[in-house]
Amino acid sequence: MAAEGGGKEMNEIKTQFTTREGLYKLLSHSEYSRPNRVPFNSQGFNPVRVSFVNVNDQSGNGDRLSFNVGRELYFYIYKGVRKAADLSKPIDKRIYKGTQPTCHDFNHLTATAESVSLLVGFSAGQIQLIDPIKKETSKLFNEERLIDKSRVTCVKWVPGSESLFLVAHSSGNMYLYNVEHTCGTTAPHYQLLKQGESFAVHTCKSKSTRNPLLKWTVGEGALNEFAFSPDGKFLACVSQDGFLRVFNFDSVELHGAMKSYFGGLLCVCWSPDGKYIVTGGEDDLVTVWSFVDCRVIARGHGHKSWVSVVAFDPYTTSVEESDPMEFSGSDEDFQDLHFGRDRANSTQSRLSKRNSTDSRPVSVTYRFGSVGQDTQLCLWDLTEDILFPHQPLSRARTHTNVMNATSPPAGSGGTNPGSNGNSITTPGNSVPPPLPRSNSLPHSAVSNAGSKSSVMDGAIASGVSKFATLSLHDRKERHHEKDHKRNHSMGHISSKSSDKLNLVTKTKTDPAKTLGTPLCPRMEDVPLLEPLICKKIAHERLTVLIFLEDCIVTACQEGFICTWARPGKVGLLSSQNQANSPSGTVV
C-alpha cells in the first residue's frame, strides 16, 4: 500500500481513489440524505442502514432504496450514477415515536412497481411489515414485546421465501417468523428441538400455529448480524462473544466456528461462490474463514477502530484461465476488469467451474471491502497465494470432510476421514441457474442432500407441526456410520417440560485457551493482508458498504448515503483530473 501523507492530509476527506481497475469517484449530486441535507446528530441513535430493491418497472429506473436516520425512515427512487438525487420527493417518509428503526430488508421475490414488502426492525424489539409504495403498514410482529424485549440487530427474508423471515436480537436470540401467522396474545412456550455446543433451537408449543416458528439461542451476548449463504442453505452468525458460527439452516446443525482475535464480531458476509466468509469486529481486523476447511486462512489489518461492515464485490472478482488455448469464451474476458450484470454472472459461473474437480487450471482473485468506525473505507484482494499457499495452481483442490454437520466445532477434533460420502460442499453454487457444486468428490454429499429432512420445508408446508418429523431415530439412520455426534445430534424433544430455555452450554470460553488453536490462530500463524486502498471518506463512523453494478454505496452516521461511480461510469475524466487524484492511491 502506498504511503499516506501526514498531518492535515491524513485527515482530509477523500472524494476519489484509484485501484487497478481505474478511478472511483464520489458523485456529490447522487448523495441521499434527509431532505434538509443537515448532518444528523447521531449521538445515542442506532446506525444508519440502507436497503436496496429493484422493482423491474418499464422505465428502466427500477432501483429503490430505503434508509433510516434516527427516528426517521425514508424510501426513494435511487438514480445512482445516471441522474441527480431529488431529495424533495421521497416516495415515503415515516417518523416513529418511542422507538427507532435499527435495520430493514426488502423481499426481492415479491417486489413490483406497484408494491414492495419491507421489513423494519426496531430498538424496542418490534418488527414491522410495510409497503412504502402503497404507504401501508401491513403487520406488526412482537407488538407487545412478549417474544423478545431487546433491540432488533438484524432482519432478513429467508432466501427463496415470500413469507418467512429471520430476526436477530441483542438478547442473543434469533426467531423465525411467517408473515401469515399471528404472534398470539400471551408469551410463547417452547420445547427443545435441538441443542449443540453454545446453541439451542426451540419450537413454539401451541395448539394453533403461531409466531415464532423457531427460536435460536446462539452463544453469549448480542447476536450482532447474520448472513445467508448465496444458495440460502447455510447461515453465518456473528456474536458479541467473538464467535462466528455457521449453521446448516435446514437441519439446524452447526457446520463450523471461529473466534475473533479479541472482542465481539460485528459483521459478516459470504463470497459470491459461498467458499469463504469474511468477518469484522472489535479487534479492528477483517478475518477470512474457509467454509470448506473450517479454518481461518487470512486476517487483514488496515482499520484503526472497529470494523462495522464487510462485503464482497462480485463485479470485481476476477477469474483467469491459465491455458488460453482451451478457453472457449470471448476475448473480452481477458481484458482489464469491466463491470456489469453479465460480468457478475460470468464470474460466478467461472468460479464454480474453477472449483469443479474436472476443470482446467484457473486463477481467481476475490475483492471485498470494509468500512469502520475510523471513517475509513478499505478494499482488499484475496489472491491464490493466500488461498492456497502450499498448493500448485495446476489443479483444483478436492477436500474430504474437515467438519461435517455432526462434527464438533473447529479446534476440538472429531474428524472422520474414513467415512464415505462425507465431502464438504460449498453453499454458493446452488443459486439459480444451478451451478456445479464445488469442492466435492463425484457423487458425494450432493446425493444425500435430497434425503435430508428439512426443518425449513416443514415450516413452509404446515408450520411447527412438521418439525416433529425430524426425529432422533431418523437422524440415527441417516448418520449410522458416524459415532461422534456429541452435542450436535438433535436433543430429545420433551413432552413434559414446555420451556427449558437454559439448555445452551454456558461454559465461558477462555480467550487464552482458544488463542493458538484452529478456532483462533495466532497472528503469526496466518497470512496478514494489507488493503489495496484505505481512505478516510466521512466525518462520522461508516455504517454501510454495498457493491452495485456501476457504483459503490457507503453511508455514515450523519445520515449521508454516498455513491462512488466505478471506473468509466461517469464519462471520461481528463488526464489533469487523474493527475490530481488524492495522495496515497494505488495505480
TrEMBL record:
Keywords: Acetylation, Cytoplasm, Nucleus, Phosphoprotein, Repeat, WD repeat. The keyword Nucleus applies. The keyword Zinc-finger does not apply. WD repeats lie at residues 258-290. Its main location: cytoplasm. PROSITE patterns: WD_REPEATS_2, WD_REPEATS_REGION. InterPro entries: WD40/YVTN_repeat-like_dom_sf (IPR015943), WD40_repeat_dom_sf (IPR036322), WD40_rpt (IPR001680), WD_repeat_creC_regulators (IPR051362). It is found in: Cytoplasm; Nucleus. Residues 402-453, 475-495 are annotated as: Disordered. Residues 476-489 have a biased composition (Basic residues). One of its GO terms (cellular component) is nucleus. Residues 437-453 have a biased composition (Polar residues). It comes from the Eukaryota. Residues 417-426 have a biased composition (Low complexity). Interacts with USP12; promotes translocation of USP12/WDR20 to the plasma membrane. Component of the USP12/WDR20/WDR48 deubiquitinating complex. Interacts with USP46; contributes to the cytoplasmic localization of the USP46/WDR20 complex. Component of the USP12/DMWD/WDR48 deubiquitinating complex. This is WD repeat-containing protein 20.
